[in-house]
Amino acid sequence: METLIETALRDRDQDGTIRWKAIAMLHERGDLETFTAARRLCAGNTVTERMLGVDILGRLPFVDRSLPVLRFLAAAEDDCMVLYSVLIAFGHLRDGRALPSVLALSEHEDSRVRYGVAHALPKIMGVPPDPAGLAVLERLTEDSDDDVAEWARLGLALSTGREVEESGWEGSARGEVDDVGGHVLDP
């Protein structure tokens, strides 16, 4: 396990194949030892360590243990890329208890963070969707960043089952759209 973590830390490309292969192998392990190592990384001194810890936690089967760590980072972290990773992890964990943390980041000045909000909300708002989450998605459809606005329109369509006019595509029934405009819903 330590070798996989070291390999992922050495890859300077956050989207690099080597880094993500190592993370995928850690996800496959899915054990408490991996969770403990990821939690330790989340408290690391470097952005690279914290991002790796979050990226590992986001797909481990320890939701009750992962959420407090991720919610703490959502409130305390300054780095936009770590916050983005936290939001993507919330989406992967699909737990409504993350909703207050996601809503709190919805007006962040960095568009990458707002993009993470638009990605996470449809997966954590519940059924029926939380009204506060829907209001944030609605607001984000008018975001100055085109990617944020597009993901917010997609999230709104998936959450409500209705088409959102500006999106340039027809929404389908709740949860049936996996790939829109070449974008995979679950990065």
TrEMBL record:
<protein>
    <submittedName>
        <fullName>HEAT repeat protein</fullName>
    </submittedName>
</protein>
<feature type="region of interest" description="Disordered">
    <location>
        <begin position="164"/>
        <end position="187"/>
    </location>
</feature>
<feature type="compositionally biased region" description="Basic and acidic residues">
    <location>
        <begin position="173"/>
        <end position="187"/>
    </location>
</feature>
<dbReference type="Pfam" id="PF13646">
    <property type="entry name" value="HEAT_2"/>
</dbReference>
<dbReference type="InterPro" id="IPR011989">
    <property type="entry name" value="ARM-like"/>
</dbReference>
<dbReference type="InterPro" id="IPR016024">
    <property type="entry name" value="ARM-type_fold"/>
</dbReference>
